[in-house]
């Protein structure tokens, strides 16, 4: 029983480790792998809270750990990814601008954590950092077809939308995990990228994570 209580935190730590690995891959020029790791982090992030409730393992430690993992995987890792793929050509200025993303993300997380519980039942105030970081990762995956100016505009927009007061529907009433629909839509695209460019370098995590996540989505849908 005690081991099952630790499963949600282990999933959260897996999310955090994906962020760390993503930074390492980005620094080594393996940008698609770095982006895939961020999206795997999204899969894990969508699971930990649900698992905690299913296993009756909700805790303050788990919530704090989740926020720390999110700022690394969806704040720091995407900012490094954008810097290494595009902003690096602007030198120090590009490095400074890239660093703004985790700052806005951290503020957004802190505001969310200190907001009344009932205020977030049906909507988020500002774009969640998970969604913002995932969007940047997806842009990087298709960077060969997307103009750099588009990435720059979306990067800037995500920074300000995270700390905005715009209400974003939480979709918690939908019988799928948080962000599950978004991630599922891009699974096919991810597999395409893996087969086309990174299969030999990065077969293990994606081919473990994707079937598990699809099974998890199916379980949640059937259970509802």
Give a structural overview.
The protein has 224 residues and is mainly alpha-helical. It has a single domain (2-223), classed as CDP-alcohol phosphotransferase transmembrane (TM) domain (Four Helix Bundle (Hemerythrin (Met), subunit A)). 73% of the residues lie in helices and 3% in strands. It has helices spanning 2-27, 31-54, 60-85, 92-98, 100-113, 129-141, 148-162, 180-198, 204-223; strands spanning 123-125, 167-169. It has a two-stranded antiparallel sheet with strand order 1-2. The two termini are 25 Å apart. The relative contact order is 0.13. The model has no long low-confidence stretch (mean pLDDT 77). It comes from Rossellomorea vietnamensis. This is CDP-diacylglycerol--serine O-phosphatidyltransferase. Its EC number is 2.7.8.8.
Please sum up the structure shown.
The protein is mainly alpha-helical and 224 residues long.
Shape: globular
Measured by DSSP, the beta-strand proportion falls in under 5%
Regarding CATH, which class?
A: Mainly Alpha
CATH topology: Four Helix Bundle (Hemerythrin (Met), subunit A)
Poorly predicted spans: none
Protein name: CDP-diacylglycerol--serine O-phosphatidyltransferase
EC number: 2.7.8.8
Keywords: Transferase
Organism: Rossellomorea vietnamensis
């Amino acid at each position: 029983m005690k081991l099952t209580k630790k499963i949600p935190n282990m999933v959260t730590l897996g999310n955090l480790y994906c962020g760390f690995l993503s930074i390492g891959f980005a620094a080594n020029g393996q940008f698609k792998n770095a982006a895939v790791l961020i999206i795997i982090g999204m899969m894990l992030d969508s699971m930990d809270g649900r698992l905690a409730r299913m296993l009756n393992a909700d805790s303050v430690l788990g919530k704090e750990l989740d926020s720390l993992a999110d700022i690394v995987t969806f704040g720091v890792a995407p900012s490094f990814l954008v810097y290494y793929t595009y902003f690096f050509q602007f030198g120090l200025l590009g490095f400074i601008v890239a660093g703004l993303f985790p700052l806005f993300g951290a503020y957004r997380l802190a505001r969310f954590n200190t907001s009344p519980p009932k205020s977030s039942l049906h909507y988020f105030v500002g774009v969640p950092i998970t969604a913002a970081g995932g969007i940047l990762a997806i842009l990087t995956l298709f960077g060969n077809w997307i103009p750099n100016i588009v990435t720059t505009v979306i990067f800037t927009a995500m920074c300000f939308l995270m700390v905005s007061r715009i209400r974003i529907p939480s979709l918690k009433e939908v019988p799928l995990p948080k962000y599950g629909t978004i991630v599922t839509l891009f699974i096919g695209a991810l597999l395409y990228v893996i087969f086309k460019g990174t299969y030999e370098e990065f077969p293990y995590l994606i081919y473990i994570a994707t079937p598990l996540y699809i099974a998890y989505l199916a379980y949640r849908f059937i259970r509802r």
